[in-house]
Amino acid sequence: MNSPLKNIVESLIFVSQEPLTSERIQAVLEGVPAADIQAAVDELIADTAADGRGVQIIHVGGGWLFSTKPAFDREVRRLLQIERKNRLSSAGLETLAAIAYRQPVTQAEVSAIRGVDSTSSLKTLLERPDQDRRTEEGAGKPARLQDVRRVPSLPGAQRPRRTPLRGGDRQDPAGG
Predict the structure, then answer these.
(1) Contact 37, 26 (CB under 8 A)
(2) Is residue 9 located within the same domain as residue 71?
(3) Would you say residue 73 lies in a domain?
(4) In the 3-class helix/strand/coil scheme, how is 75-140 assigned residue by residue?
(5) 147 touches 131 (CB < 8 A)
(6) How many Å separate Cα 55 from the centre of its chain?
(7) In the structure, what pLDDT confidence band is assigned to residue 140 with cuts at 50, 70 and 90?
(8) Which of 28, 41, 42, 135 is the most buried if burial means most Cβ atoms within 10 Å?
(9) Can you tell me the distance from the alpha carbon of 165 to that of 159, in angstroms, rounded to the nearest whole number?
(10) pTM (global) more than 0.90
């Protein structure tokens, strides 16, 4: 079905620089019920999932984005002159999780969380553009590490509303 609503939603997702949430679409389309928006998105996902299409709509970071299909990765990377990025080792992934969980965090804190020396993993992570290092005032001026990506970029990943902290307390990243 080619409804005007589906065409509008497709246009909005196409021009969006960030994952477009249902709430944002609803705010733009004033008065359109969320169920109608979801139905339009579901149709678009089904349409782009069909064989013969080079793009798809994926759910990422709590919203939807257009993405090229993985089958065309090699050609897209060649066009954009993108080299395949090295994947993180399990130690690097564990270190990144510790940083994301308790950021900003020092090297000593990351090592304490992991229970092993994290120097090598931290060095590798700091070579990546999505990590930030800030120096603190105080004894030895320890570096505080922080993951500076704005939203999770893996399909299906969503930013948690609440994160556990020490002692079982919970904190709302929005400040609540």
Answers:
(1) yes
(2) yes
(3) yes
(4) HHHHHHCCCCCCCCCHHHHHHHHHHHHHCCECHHHHHHHHCCCCHHHHHHHHCCCCEEEEECCCCC
(5) yes
(6) 19
(7) low
(8) 41
(9) 16
(10) no
